[in-house]
Amino acid sequence: ARSLGCAAEVIPLPGFGRLADNARGIREWLAARRGRRVTLVSLSKGGADVRAALSTPDAAEVFAGVDAWVSLSGIVHGTALVEWLRARPLRWWAVRAAARAVGVELP
Fold it and tell me: Does the global pTM surpass 0.85?
């Protein structure tokens, strides 16, 4: 977007952050830009983060300046794999350990 002359910002959120925390970050970011027109673009899990932010009671006010939301490969309803893994504590522990080994902290 910047290379085309458009203003663009990245909301500083952790890719593996909890939905509630990332939703709060989105809401705070939008509140800081109140009065500006915004197009949100989300990728992958960012779709679930935006959806969580939209599900709050004050979403109409917070999202008032958002003209559009573009979700690229968004997973807005979660994934059955995570639920399956969390139901199997040993496997979930192994996945978390493997992620930690490569520098990713899972909630």
Answer: no
